[in-house]
Design brief:
310 residues, Aminopeptidase, 13-stranded mixed sheet, 13 strands, 33% helix, disordered N terminus, binds coenzyme A
């Protein structure tokens, strides 16, 4: 800031449940527009659920306002079991981010809870979270074009489309595949089998991570253990042109043999067949094994999200 320049006063946080639907609608629309523009990710339906929960008083959150009452940012939060989850955080600058984080963490819902946050990066969010003792890890949003001539790996490798009976085996596979991961993850922070089952069910049944596409989600049966899987991809549709790899995992015994690469190519081809010319995914910046796979498959950074855990 220039010497002598007037300091922008810190915004005041107000409970967003006191705002009318007409006042909140433009805030949600602007953010949905940003997701569509920056990530090719249609958030209108999920934000519709957010608004319904807010308007009925079930979803707490805050809007940060300047001295004249103009909105400068917003966020929402909820308690799920012993987790305090902070949702999307929208902010016009460092002071707003600080006010929003302070207000969220002052909620009684945060008492004696672990804190989990996942949002597109907001100004100064990383350092603000760190001052609250929250560990932070960036997640890169990667995008690749889906070449029309991607090889059809499905028949060659015995992969098959995921079915509803695979929910349990996919959950068991993810639990095992992520057991020793060192990077922070905003999903299934504990790791109990039921939590993985709940997570996979949510990916398949809700639009939080896009619309589940069974035909582009592939699994590899474990040939030595009937009923178990060696690998799985869960694919979704984010937008008219964009498919999303919501999960990809290979069991520890099947690693290093090209299974993830084959599953990824197979899924990309199925997405392409549905007219989805782009494919995206989110990966923890320190997940070096997965990043090697994505780099060589042509994925490029197109945005940054942050996860925070305390
Ligand atoms: C990431 C993961 C899916 C890779 O599965 P995999 O079947 O072992 O991967 P592949 O054998 O197909 O290897 C594909 C590429 O990944 C990278 N890779 C995989 N294992 C690696 C290792 N041990 N060391 C270095 N690079 C490795 C390499 O770039 C490799 O390409 P290359 O063989 O041409 O060098 C697996 O490690 C996993 O399930 N990890 C836990 C879950 C996870 O992190 N999922 C990704 C979420 S974004």
């Amino acid at each position: 800031m220039n010497a002598g320049a007037a300091e922008v006063p810190a915004p005041t946080c107000t409970d967003w449940r006191g705002w009318s639907a007409d006042e909140i609608a433009p805030l949600l629309e602007r953010e949905a527009g940003r997701w569509a523009r920056d990530f090719h990710w249609d958030q209108r339906e999920p934000f519709g659920y957010v608004e319904a929960a807010r308007a009925s008083g079930r979803l707490p959150g805050v809007v940060a306002v300047g001295p004249r009452g103009a909105a400068r940012g917003w966020t929402f939060f909820l308690r799920h079991a012993d987790e305090f989850q902070i949702g999307t955080m929208v902010s016009d600058g460092a002071a707003t981010t600080r006010a929003l984080v302070d207000a969220a963490l002052a909620s009684p819902l945060a008492d004696r809870a672990s804190i989990v946050l996942f949002t597109p990066a907001a100004p100064d969010l990383e350092s603000v979270l760190q001052t609250h003792g929250v560990r932070v890890e960036p997640y890169d949003y990667l995008v690749a074009q889906n070449a029309p001539d991607a090889p059809d790996a499905r028949s060659a490798t015995g992969l098959r489309p995921m079915e509803s009976a695979d929910l349990g085996p996919v959950a068991a596979l993810l639990g095992e595949a992520y057991r020793d991961a060192r990077f922070l993850r905003p999903f299934v922070t504990g790791g109990a089998p039921d939590d993985w089952r709940h997570y996979v069910t949510q990916l398949v049944e809700t639009r939080g991570c896009g619309e589940f596409l069974a035909e582009a989600s592939v699994v590899a049966d474990d040939v030595s253990e009937p009923g178990l899987l060696s690998g799985a991809v869960i694919a979704t549709r984010l937008h008219d042109d964009t498919g999303h790899i919501a999960q990809i995992a290979v069991g520890s015994r099947a690693r290093g043999q090209g299974l993830a690469r084959h599953m990824l190519e197979c899924s990309r081809r199925a997405l392409r067949t549905r007219g989805l010319s782009r494919v995206s995914l989110l990966v923890a910046r320190t997940n070096t094994l997965a990043r090697g796979l994505y780099d060589s498959a042509g994925f490029k950074p197109a945005g940054t999200f942050l996860t925070g855990i305390r």
